[in-house]
Amino acid sequence: MQVVRPIAQNGEDRDSGTMERAVVSRPRLPGASSLAVRVSEIALIVGVALFFFDRLFNAARHDLLALDFRQTYLPAAEALVHGHSPYPEYGYPPLVAFLSVPFALLGRPDVLVTIVMIACVPLALWLLDIRDVRCYAALFLWVAVFNAIQTGNVTLPMLVGIAACWRWRDRVWRASLAGGLSAAAKIIAWPLVVWLAATRRWSTAAGVVLVAGASTFLLWAVLGFSGLSGYVGSLGTLADQQQLRGYTVQALAEDAGLHSPLPGLLGSALALVTLVGVVVFARRGDDARSFAFAVAAVIVASPIVWLHSFVLLIAPLAVLRPRFSALWLLPAALWFVSPGTGNGATWQTATTLGGFALLFFVLLLPRRAAQSGTEWSSGARAVAGQGS
Question: Three-state secondary structure along the chain?
């Protein structure tokens, strides 16, 4: 029932009474809004679960679960179990190979790794202080997230490390451990050091370098430094073989018919721009956008970018847009564009890069405050105070 206070006969309170009538009748809205939000949450979660597990079971039927893990990390782990070095065949730093040993000792490593990959998604969001369940559900609609889970690549665990580095950015040793292990797993995480230094977290930046360097050195020492001398050269060979199959500006430029060295120069220029963005926003005191550019640099500066690499953009999305919106669902549209392996045709590469670039640039835009909602909440509280 609508309750309206009587208005004074002399008309002195006519305006205030009219305002009061409008304000007092509105507290019904939050209940209706809350119900709509809850219904939308349930519908989204159920729809996402049905879609995601259908795709996952389809991958299992075609023996595609944890494909990268089984082809790359598992053989390295099995070599360690048998007392051998995984090098020179293994193309990553030793940390991931050692961490993969428990999976080599257990049955059905593909299933176990898939479970771990799925768990990394909510863990990363929790570390980034996201509590809206719709944000959690939306990520499982991203083709990049599905690709990261299905391949069992190290990208999702690296996202957890990057998220932890942001959460504990002002706690030196926690951030050093999180960032250092991320860099030790994949050296492409080095732009985190630039961000920490640009924001004058000198001790943490040094700590990340120390943790990454010390852990890599010690693990390689266990292997008798096997494969270390030729490791950098093998990375260069791998980049030459694979970079044109990935989602990079270089690959797109080559597909468009540009000749060397222009594609490489374009890629280097884009990487430089992202690093400049890290420094510029850090000097402005905008820690969140400086961090966003650092994560973008992790992707852009990498010589090989696969579809699952773009899951790292979850970190700046959560930091800059912590509330659920259509932006969280934007990458879901790429299901109809991006192939799971390689970059596909030129239009597929361009559309995929354009979609994630759009997501990133929208994140950089300033958020407009919801003035009307704030004013209504203030008015409702004021009326409640008058009536008490």
Answer: CCCCCCCCCCCCCHHHHHHHHHHHCCCHHHHHHHHHHHHHHHHHHHHHHHHHHHHHHHHHHCCCCCHHHHHHHHHHHHHHHCCCCCCCCCCCCHHHHHHCHHHHHCCCHHHHHHHHHHHHHHHHHHHCCCCCHHHHHHHCCCHHHHHHHHHCCCHHHHHHHHHHHHHCCCCHHHHHHHHHHHHHHCHHHCHHHHHHHHCCCHHHHHHHHHHHHHHHHHHHHHCCCCCCCCHHHHHHHHHHHHHHHCCCHHHHHHHCCCCCCHHHHHHHHHHHHHHHHHHHHHHCCCHHHHHHHHHHHHHHCCCCCCHHHHHHHHHHHHHHCCCCCHHHHHHHHHHHCCCCCCCCCHHHHHHHHHHHHHHHHHHHCCCCCCHHHHHHHHHHHHHHHHHC
For the record, the structure tokens of 134 come out as 């719709």
pLDDT value for 38: 82
pLDDT digits (tens, 9 = 90+) for 289-310: 999 999 999 999 998 899 999 9
Question: Is residue 31 one of the residues assigned to a domain?
Answer: no
| CB neighbourhood size of 21 (10 A) | 14
Which pTM value belongs to this model?
0.84
| Domain range enclosing 294 | 66-227+242-366
Note the pLDDT tens digit of each residue in 40-57.
Answer: 788 889 999 999 999 999
Non-local (6+) Cβ contacts of 29 within 8 A are none
Region of residue 218 (phi > 0: left; psi between -120 and 50: alpha; otherwise: beta): alpha
Any domain includes 289: yes
- Domain membership flag for residue 28: no
Q: What is the rounded CA–CA span in Å between residue 157 and residue 178?
A: 11
Residue 51: inside a domain, yes or no? Answer: no
Residues whose CB is less than 8 angstroms from the CB of residue 162 and which lie 6 or more positions away in sequence, other chains included: 178, 179, 182, 189, 192, 295, 298, 312, 315
Residue found by looking up tokens 């400086």 in the block: 290
**Count: domains in the chain:** 1
